[in-house]
């Protein structure tokens, strides 16, 4: 069974283009993408700390419980 994957990516990342992160999330069978508008490569948590923390908490809860806690529009099925 494929493992869940959470890709957290900022739209202003100049090290790894946003399109690459999106493609990785979409290619993974249980991939999910959290897009942080305006965030750079190293500023993900600082750009929207609440969304960042919530996404990580949901992702780890899913790993612990085997539940799918993705929000509509945040999941990319491959």
Describe the structure.
With 78 residues, the protein is of the alpha+beta class. 40% of the residues lie in helices and 15% in strands. The chain contains 3 helices and 2 strands, in the order E-H-E-H-H. It has helices spanning 18-27, 44-47, 49-65, and strands spanning 5-10, 31-36. A two-stranded parallel sheet has the order 1-2. The longest helix has 17 residues, at 49-65.
Write a concise keyword list for the protein shown above.
3 helices; 78 residues; single chain; alpha+beta
> Given the C-alpha coordinates, what overall shape results?
flat
Give the ordered list of helices and strands.
EHEHH
Between the first and last Cα atoms, what is the distance in angstroms?
14 Å
Summarize model confidence as the mean pLDDT: 85
Read across the widest sheet, the strand sequence of neighbours is: 1-2
The total count of helices amounts to 3
- What is the tally of beta strands? 2
* Cα-atom radius of gyration: 12 Å
Helices and strands: which structural class?
alpha+beta
Q: Helix share of residues?
A: 25-40%
Give start-end ranges of low-pLDDT stretches: none
Summarize the main sheet. Answer: 2 strands, parallel
Measured by DSSP, the beta-strand proportion falls in 15-25%
